[in-house]
Every structure is written in structure tokens, then in C-alpha cells.
TrEMBL record, chains A, B:
Residues 322-364 form the MannoseP isomerase/GMP-like beta-helix domain. Transmembrane segments: none annotated. Pfam families: ManC_GMP_beta-helix, NTP_transferase. InterPro entries: GMPP_N, ManC/GMP-like_b-helix, Mannose-6P_isomerase_type2, NTP_transferase_dom, Nucleotide-diphossugar_trans. This is Mannose-1-phosphate guanylyltransferase. GO terms for molecular function: nucleotidyltransferase activity. Residues 10-288 form the Nucleotidyl transferase domain. Keywords: Nucleotidyltransferase, Transferase.
Length: 373, 373
């Protein structure tokens, strides 16, 4: 593998993953959980997946105050100053922009990649090749995104419209960012051959990104520049406390990437490395290896003395079972259910309704049952 | 209500209720649980239901060594000597016969009724009327059973074939005890108007019963008579230890009632008091008042601070939910499931498979997972 020693890795670790409730909680969001059958958490796996393209000194995690300690413990090799703690959530443009501004003061023409803390990648070597190709595009001055070659007409992701039909191989111009489509539109997108899934991964030179941020979001640029100038110094907390709360809440897609695409500045590299955003339990069930020959998936299981997970299935198939608390989960005569057992809450949900788990969390908040959220 | 001061009440409290696993366990069988929404356990409710027909001094419980302490604590008004503890399970004829033999030594022509510890009765006054009518039949020298007027062609119960069509009102001759029927046969039984459900409740003079026991099962009669003679005396334990293990394991239906019916000695009173044997979670769900207007039933719930049970249902109907551990149970987009949460095990089962929960318990035993049984 060609190593790209100058790559800075930025990992925005935010969001509570409410569609993975009751496993994922506000206080323990999904990126802090091991969900893949490996002992590594999603955050640790993200750092590990990139460690041949960078070094710990060039790896930064941006996270909220509630999770700073957990992030620090899960990533003991990361220098302390590389955990950037946001005083309050200000959406992805502030998070990624802060990292870009901080990196810019260390190395103004550094190349940085931004990678979500809670995605799965099946083929690490293919992933590394794609990122290296994106780095080459970034060196040329493009704001690179990683586009995933669609495997089906998914309606849960945004899409990238490319300038020409997309075959294997690197760098295409991105003409437009498209919202999550309706089922019909998704079929059109995929059959056209010109659309890729927007995986929310970006690679760019920080000077190019910050110039676009300044052009499109001057107030946000000024605020982040002021914070970055004070970062690590005696006035960091005072400046953060004053400036951060005033930053615009906006996603990086809306704030910068759409306008940059319209200006012809955005390109992409199609990836085929087996990507999944682990958005909900149904998706998770599709990604993981089944536990048995009838398609039951056991996630994140405490092992029993016998080394087997604490489950007992009779005439039960297509289940996604999460025995996090270690209690026995027995299932009889049921199919395609999600069953999650935690210390204080049990969820039983049809797989078709995995997207709606968020509604349960909303209901709990409304009822004032914050202990479960 | 006419009180029948001479009625002795015998409650065989055995069986582990494996179809109610994981709520019901070998160490904590169903009769020790409150399942009706009332604080009383099934055992306590059984004693309470009969307390206008008897007195604590004439109420006896026959139970196993594992449950003697719990029985004693749940029924503090019962004299100690009225808890008859079986050294090992020897089926219902030994249990009921022991009680009959012990009562016979106190009062040879006493009338005794035997009532399972784990059944539900909806209309107590109607139940009392039926028992009083059975007592009248027992005085005349019949071995009385309580027959339940069928409400549907149930295949899970045995039936009583009566000598003539059964209308409202008391005492009919029972010609035959019929095994659990196939669905077709059950329909025939119910449409014939001559069959009643066998509720496993008996009322008889102990002298009549013991005479039939002596005639049909002389060895069992001799053994029980020897034990009863030593009961409460200095040699009780020695005699029990020697004689009890040799007693025939046989149900009272097979041992005595079928032969007595053939001899014209058995009669019945049709009951319409809303009876249920709480054999499994599906049955339990049919008996209890729903929690909401879409037919969800919440059993045995620990109350939260708000006074509400810890459940959250979205687009979920026809569920039977048992939040025994007090954890929150959330259900989304599912129907007709049984969801039981206990300290160490969770069950998710389709209501149609409620009868097969026993198979899970068998599997756990086979695997050596006795901690869950």
C-alpha cells in the first residue's frame, strides 16, 4: 500500500444513534459500542481502519462533552490535544470546520479526511485504495467525497450525481448532492449509472476547504478561525465559551459541499469496499454474519461459561438479537424480529419497523422518562 | 349463601407450570405467583375463594418440600399441621389420597373438596353455589366432579360425558372421563350437549372416596392409611420415609374416578362461573382485562413511580407482556406475541406457540442450563 504520510484523519463522533435504542443511548451512543462481533467498538474500528494512512499524532476526534472521557479511554494512543471537545452540538460543519482550522494552524496545506465514527467497512484494503485515490484528487485542489457504488435502490441514503456514467476507477466530477430519494426515484438513480451513495466521507486540502467555507459561510469561518487561534492556549476556554454558541448550526453538505459542487469544485471516487452506516438494527443484521443457518444474528453478546451467547431459538428465523445484559434470550415461533435486552429496557420490534425505533425514544422523552433515553 | 361448615378444602399445590416459563420456575411455580392483576397469588386466591365454605382449620395444602416454606408464608392463617409436605412427587392420587386419609382420622364422614392451586374463577358467588350443589351430591354418596359448561371446542382439556343432555341446574351422572380430544372430536363433544370440561375439582365424602381407593388401588390405600395413622406422631418421618417412595405414581382420574364412573358412582354439577386453568400465557391473556383498547395485556407488572406499568407500545396489539423484573418493555410493529422479562431470562414467543414453551424448558434441561429452569 502506498502510504500517504501527510493525511490528517478527522473523526466526528457525535449523534446518539436513536434508531439503535435501547442499546445506543444519549450517554452511550453507538460509536462507543462494539457491534460487529469483534471486541473493538465502532470508534476504535474506525481509527484502526485508517492507521496505515496516518499516525496517532495526525488523528483527531471531535466529540461532545458527554463522551470526551469515553473517547479518551477507548483511544489511549491518541494525544490528548487531538480530542477536540465541542461545548455543545453545532452540527457537522462546525465540528469538521473546527478540526480543519486547528489542522491548518499546524500545517496550512495539509490533506485531511473526515470519516464518521460509526460506519462499517468490510474490505479494508479496497477502502485504503479508494482513500489514496481521493487523496490524489485532493492534492489537485478538489473537495473529494467518497461515493459508494449502489448495490440496491436504497431510500435511506443521500446520493451524488456524477458528471458522467461511473465505471470502476478514480475521480469523477460531482454535479449535485441529492437528498434521500423516494423508492421510484431511487430505482431511476441506480439504473442511470450516474449516481453514487453519499457516504459522508470527505478528503480535501484544508486550505481549499477553508477558502470555500470563507466564501459560503463567512461568519462560521471567522468564528472557527478565532477559536482555532486560541486553541491550546490560555484563552481557549474563554474564546470557546463566547464564540462557539453563536456558530451556525448547519451540516457541511448544505453549508459548503452543495455550493462547491455548483462551482465545479467537488469530485468523488467510487468505492466498492462494503460500506454500511449501521443506521438501525435491520441494517446491522444484514451486515453481520448470521449465528445459525436460519439467518438469526446475535450482536454484541456477553459470552456464557460455555463460550456460546445466551440465546435459545426454536422455530425462530431472521432474528436480530442483542443480549447485552447477559440474560438469556429465548425465542419461539417468531420471525424477523429485533430483540434487544439491556440492563433497564427490552425492545421487541419487527425488522420492517427498524427505522421507527426513533419514535419510541421521542415518546419516552415526551413522557419524561429520561432515564431510558 | 348457605355455609357448609363441614367442608374440608384440600389444595394440591404441585407442578411447575413449565408452559409459563420463564415466569414459572421449578423453584417458584405458577401457584406462588400473582398473575391476575390483584396482589394475591394464585394459591392465596384459591384459599380466599373458598373461605366462606370452610375455615382455616379445615383447609389443607399438599405440596412438595421445595415449596413448603413459601406456602407457609403465603398462607399465615393456615395451621402448620395443615401443610402436608410430600417427600417426593407421587402424582395426584397420592397427594389427594393422603389428605383424605388424614382428614378421615379427624372426621371419618367429612366432606372434602379438592381444588387446584393455580386455576382462575371469575364469578365467586356462582362458584360457591356450584360447590354447595356438589356438596349435596357428595352427601348422597356420589364422587362429585365439577364440570365446566364448554364455551368453545377446546382441545387442551379432558371432558366428562354425562348420562343425558346437560341443562342448567345440579347433579348429573358421569358415564365416562374422556381424554383431551382432537379438534373434530371436540366440536362433536360440544355440539352434542352431553359433554362438560373436566376442571379437576372433586367433592366427596372421604369414606366413600377411601372405599373406592381401597377397591381399585389396595396397595396405595394401605400405604396412605399407614402414613395417615403415623401423621403428627413421633414416627411420622420414619413411616413417610419408608412407605411414601413405594406409592404408585398415578393420577386420581386414572386410579379411582374412571373405575368409579364405570360403577355408576360419579356425578357432576355443571359450572358456569368463568373458569380457567391458566395453563399457558395465551390462556392467561384471554382471561385478564386488556391494558388498552388494542388488546394488549400486561401481567404481574411492577408499578413505576407514575403508577403505570413499565411498558411502551407503538403499533402493537394483542400482546401478552409480563414485565416482572421491572425493566421497561418496549414493543413496536408487532402483534400477538408473548413477551416475558424476568431477572435472568427474556422470552419472546408467538401466542399460537404458547403450548410449546415447555419445549424450551426441556431444551434447557438437556443442555444442562439448570439455572434457568
Amino acid at each position: 500500500m502506498p502510504v500517504t504520510p501527510l493525511l490528517y484523519v478527522v473523526i466526528p463522533a457525535g449523534g446518539s444513534g436513536t434508531r439503535l435504542w435501547p442499546l445506543s443511548r444519549a450517554g452511550r451512543p453507538k460509536f462507543l459500542h462494539a457491534l460487529t462481533g469483534e471486541p473493538a467498538t465502532l470508534l476504535q474500528a474506525t481509527v484502526h481502519r485508517l492507521d496505515r494512512l496516518t499516525v496517532p499524532e495526525q488523528t483527531l476526534v471531535v466529540t461532545g462533552v458527554a463522551h470526551a472521557t469515553a473517547v479518551g479511554r477507548q483511544l489511549p494512543d491518541l494525544p490528548e490535544e487531538n480530542v477536540l471537545v465541542e461545548p455543545s452540538p453545532r452540527d457537522s460543519c462546525a465540528a469538521i470546520g473546527l478540526a480543519a482550522a486547528v489542522i491548518s494552524r499546524r500545517e496550512p496545506d495539509a490533506i485531511m479526511g473526515s470519516f464518521a465514527a460509526d460506519h462499517l467497512v468490510r474490505d479494508r484494503e479496497s477502502f485504503e485504495r479508494t482513500i489514496s485515490e481521493a487523496v490524489a484528487g485532493a492534492r489537485e485542489g478538489k473537495l473529494m467525497t467518497i461515493g459508494i457504488t449502489p448495490t440496491h435502490p436504497e431510500t435511506g441514503y443521500g446520493y451524488l450525481r456524477c458528471g458522467a456514467e461511473v465505471g470502476p476507477g478514480p475521480v469523477r466530477v460531482v454535479e449535485e448532492f441529492a437528498e434521500k430519494p423516494s423508492p421510484d426515484v431511487a430505482v431511476e438513480y441506480v439504473s442511470s449509472g450516474r449516481y453514487l451513495w453519499n457516504a459522508g466521507m470527505f478528503v480535501w486540502r484544508v486550505d481549499v476547504f477553508l477558502a470555500e467555507l470563507r466564501r459560503q459561510q463567512p461568519a462560521l469561518f471567522d468564528g472557527l478561525t478565532e477559536i482555532a487561534a486560541a486553541w491550546g492556549g490560555p484563552h481557549q476556554d474563554a474564546v470557546l465559551g463566547e464564540v462557539w454558541p453563536q456558530l451556525t448550526r448547519i451540516s457541511v453538505d448544505y453549508a459548503v459541499m452543495e455550493g462547491a459542487a455548483a462551482a465545479g469544485l467537488v469530485a468523488t471516487v467510487p468505492g466498492t469496499f462494503g460500506w454500511n452506516d449501521v443506521g438501525d438494527f435491520d441494517t446491522l443484521g444484514e451486515v453481520l454474519e448470521p449465528y445459525d443457518e436460519v439467518g438469526n444474528v446475535v450482536v454484541n453478546a456477553a459470552k456464557t461459561d460455555s463460550g456460546e451467547p445466551p440465546v435459545l431459538f426454536h422455530d425462530a428465523g431472521g432474528l436480530i438479537v442483542v443480549p447485552e445484559s447477559g440474560r438469556l434470550i429465548a425465542a419461539l415461533g417468531v420471525e424477523n424480529l429485533i430483540i434487544v435486552d439491556t440492563e433497564d429496557a427490552v425492545l421487541v420490534c419487527h425488522r420492517d419497523r427498524a427505522q421507527d425505533v426513533k419514535a419510541l425514544v421521542d415518546a419516552l422523552k415526551e413522557q419524561g422518562d429520561h432515564q431510558y433515553v
